[in-house]
Amino acid sequence: MDNMPKVKIGIVAVSRDCFPESLSVNRRKGLVEAYRGKYDPEDIYECPVCIVESEIHMVNALEDLKKAGCNALCVYLGNFGPEISETLLVKHFQGLAMVVAAAEETQNDLVQGRGDAYCGMLNASYNLALRNAKAYIPEYPIGTFEEVADMVHEFVPIARAVIALSQLKIISFGPRPLNFLACNAPIKQLYNLGVEIEENSELDLFEAYNKHEGDPRIPEVVKDMEAELGDGNKKPEILPKLAQYELTLLDWVKDHKGYRKYVAIAGKCWPAFQTQFGFVPCYVNSRLTAQGIPVSCEVDIYGTLSEFIGTVVSQDTVTLLDINNSVPKDMYKESIEGKFDYTLKDTFMGFHCGNTASGKLAFCEMKYQMIMARALPIEVTQGTLEGDIKPGSITFYRLQSTADNKLRAYIAQGEVLPVATRSFGSIGVFAIPEMGRFYRHVLIEKNYPHHGAVAFGNYGKALFEVFKYIGVDVEEIGYNQPKSVRYKTENPFA
Known about the structure:
The chain has 494 residues and is of the alpha/beta class. It is 37% helix and 21% strand.
């Protein structure tokens, strides 16, 4: 399933009538050439209409962008720019917009070749605010052709995420498990974000699962699972049931996404799931997530929303983990101290039962869910995908609504260390600079639940901009502050 949008950014040059129009047009051509030489040419469209102090030009540009199928916009100030028509373009464009400006090229052409876009950018930002028109503006929005091309490229995942959210449906099954208030999900902010939600009973899902008994597609899915698991296929007898469940979810998505283009799932995976379905859904959850359809455990609706955002931003598989347990001191001394530049408090272990996709595990094995098997027969707890998570850079993050409908988020970049976990489940040894302080003054103090989404790579910059754009107050975006920057509530004498 294609579960994320393709972004096409229309590049529109603007010009003030007292400046040479050719200056903006030629700079637009230079920007487009630079982008196409470095990135996917399909990302952008060069609008032939240069807006020169004219609302009619603005309308013509809008019509051209619509005809070209653009769902994002880059307003490019090749010179000072027309503050009215350029901001009207942003206001009336049906999609995301960014505003950037050209740097002066050379000291040898500062008379007829000077564009003053550095100045025009100030007027553009002022007029956007006057019209309540939202636009993405990079940290330093002035640059050469190559630098602006990089800015446009950085805008692509931001635009992709915001567009995707506006067309997302989250499908949930069941209420959260008993005593799991941490997965409470105030619904209002979902609607504020443009996200639809379909809430179903576990009975609805169970009925659909039973109707898929004997589905002729099951052997093909089993074969695919066998190929994926390889030597890790330690529970072959459970694969037909897991395949039946996977087909149930995929068919449900197809039949229930309605008018929405993109889907994520939040499912209740215990305590009755095992006794009624006869297995645990972890492996299937991992497979759908690898297909670009995030599935969260324990009906964690904001967890799966976070996963979806990370999937769209990174265009890669993500996972959802418990911020689970501390690293034992003897493990730290044996495997981390002196080998990596982290203190013991910078480390922790991220874990979940078996929902991390096989492609993100250093090794994997189909097993039973050990925690659940302490109270249930082992045979109904099979279906976890266990293994150590691959070492490498990660971004730990979450978007959350508080009980009183306030959006907040956190982002922390770090890595999974190449350290054997000596444990069970989908699990890894994580290291995040100043994690101990972040844990206390962001995660605890801001009342975050125990689940965090994990993107594989450094995506903090894009996620921060996405959260800002969708309306999270920057004061409510927590991050792992360096040692030199104290949190507001941090004891200076500690």
